[in-house]
Amino acid sequence: DAKTTQPPSMDCAEGRAANLPCNHSTISGNEYVYWYRQIHSQGPQYIIHGLKNNETNEMASLIITEDRKSSTLILPHATLRDTAVYYCIAHPTGTASKLTFGTGTRLQVTL
Amino acid sequence: SAVISQKPSRDICQRGTSLTIQCQVDSQVTMMFWYRQQPGQSLTLIATANQGSEATYESGFVIDKFPISRPNLTFSTLTVSNMSPEDSSIYLCSAADPDRYTFGSGTRLTVV
Question: How far is Cα A48 from Cα B100, in angstroms, rounded to an integer?
Fold first, then answer.
């Protein structure tokens, strides 16, 4: 997996959009950008993934730059339950190979 | 996506003993993995559990300390052997679906 870089922590007010950045300047052509989150004392939870087009699902939106060297995960209306560590991972899909976690971003949503 | 049941959810063990953690997936999956998460740290891959053959261990992890079984496509176990306080961590199993990974809720192990 290509190395990713994320800020160690971020704060967001409840109800506002949380925008979590990720740099992956060495990403390969066959690697997707995956986002997972880990709420305290739970296993990581899949959020979203994409290759080069922007993606949206019921949890979040993923914006990938045209050069694919960075991306942003957007939680449109953050709630207290979104407080977690968010991991951005560059990983080839369809190969079922091991997933490598970096240090992630600790998002704190406050009232 | 697959659903994983992992047990026990937590345990307190005496040093020198062993603990076996079980991971059951509700569907057949090709790949299963075991991770360790030390307090305040990210997840570190211990090994890939291969069905019908020996597990593939990452650097720093050995079979004698962390024996793994994978008897079929829905089940795996991880044993933490001859435990010491340094083994106190959360242990998680994971299963690979074609395009995403599912994780168990973890086993919080405390060695005293």
Answer: 9
